[in-house]
Amino acid sequence: MRRESACCPVPNPIDAPGTGEAAWAAWPGMIRLPVLDVTAWSSVAILAAHPDDEVLGAGGIVCLLAAAGVRLRLIAVTDGEASHRGCGDVRALACRRARERAAALRELGAAKAEVIRLGLPDSGLAGREREIASAAGELAAGFDACLGPWEGDIHGDHEAVGRAARQVISPCYHFPVWMWHWARPADARVPWDQAVRVPLPRAVADRKAAAINCFGSQLEPRERGAGPVLPAGFVRHFTRDYEVLFPVRSS
Asked: Which CATH number fits domain 27-247: 2.30.30.30, 2.30.29.30, 3.40.50.10320, 1.10.240.10?
């Protein structure tokens, strides 16, 4: 979802016109990224700031892991109740988004993944990474690896959860979400020298596309003439035959 803009004159890159998928598809740098085999893990904990983050950023990986019999635990930090700010019942929206996530996991073949909802406030995670890391550290104890949103995503909630994820387990990998919108190919703000690529077989990419379509609350126009939270052009970034992760370097 979009981050609420702070009271400052600096425009939020998330709200600006973004980079089209055609530009990313034409960039040869992507195919040169080293390939990571994620199925070597036996258990993976996944942190998500909002319902749909883990499907957009790593849904194909989740599908691969589930098919390989990897134990999955999804730590849902918020219920995504603020995506339609000022429109409708936030409790009803939170319940709807939880149902959408469950349906998406079924599409990915990951219905057995354990989902633990922390219930922290959507759009209110900035500065709470210690609290998130403390809760997630206990829930992820004993897992082989951790996935979480990229801490450079220019989204307050994603960044807080990403900073928390790096404190939970090593190895930890970050998945970008909004980066595909505001960044450009070869963008110096992105750590391409650390990035790895996870190829997705066609059947897996198709299952991910079906999973994304489960999030009707984010894909449909909102009340009062507002457009969808996830416009069609943005969603195209997540229908590729690969996903990208950033390994977290130990500090």
From this structure: 3.40.50.10320
